């Protein structure tokens, strides 16, 4: 398929020869070749990101790395982006980190709630500004990311399953016969209800699903409503 795409592209090129790779061109040639893309990125940045073109481009690069399974380089880029954002805030150019970013920092640096709270108070006292968000804001952001946050319903209703959708973390051993032989006393088990976890995963994939529909020329249906059919299968 890639070979066919290249052949098709080389025929369209009016110069009569295959175009050079972008990275081998001059800055002036870059501007010429990418002028339409630059216009689209600028328009999107002004509409969605307050004119922050750099953030949009960095995010596109991040998505490209993830798509190629280059997760190590993507993680390094994310760390740089967070550091740049933090530096801008320290210099008084921002309004503080988003709660979801603070949550990611706490999780990725293995900080306990008490350790994070101590860091939050210290930074606020030293800088006089609220750069990090308080713990309650992180907990609110976390709820939106975990199963049990988004309402849903099954049609037809499932037998022996509660219609309550606000089901978050469940004790992993609840409803199971306890046995010292099977479960050591220091065992901690947590789980989610299957349907709540499924809905959470779908909401997490919402943007990708809608983009895929647009690529398939299904723009008339992106506003929903959607019917999700679940087919059980063996792993």
TrEMBL record:
Names of required cofactors: Mg(2+); Mn(2+)
UniProt-recorded name of the protein: V(D)J recombination-activating protein 1
UniProt domain comment: The NBD (nonamer binding) DNA-binding domain mediates the specific binding to the nonamer RSS motif by forming a tightly interwoven homodimer that binds and synapses 2 nonamer elements, with each NBD making contact with both DNA molecules. Each RSS is composed of well-conserved heptamer (consensus 5'-CACAGTG-3') and nonamer (consensus 5'-ACAAAAACC-3') sequences separated by a spacer of either 12 bp or 23 bp.
GO cellular component, one term: nucleus
Keywords noted in UniProt: Chromatin regulator, Coiled coil, DNA recombination, DNA-binding, Endonuclease, Hydrolase, Metal-binding, Multifunctional enzyme, Nuclease, Nucleus, Transferase, Ubl conjugation pathway, Zinc, Zinc-finger
BP GO terms, sorted: adaptive immune response; B cell differentiation; chromatin organization; T cell differentiation in thymus; V(D)J recombination
Keyword Methyltransferase: no
UniProt subcellular location: Nucleus
EC number of the protein: 2.3.2.27, 3.1.-.-
Cofactor binding annotation: Binds 1 divalent metal cation per subunit. Mg(2+) or Mn(2+).
Catalytic activity: S-ubiquitinyl-[E2 ubiquitin-conjugating enzyme]-L-cysteine + [acceptor protein]-L-lysine = [E2 ubiquitin-conjugating enzyme]-L-cysteine + N(6)-ubiquitinyl-[acceptor protein]-L-lysine
DNA-binding region, residue intervals: 15-82
Predominant localisation class: nucleus
Family: Belongs to the RAG1 family.
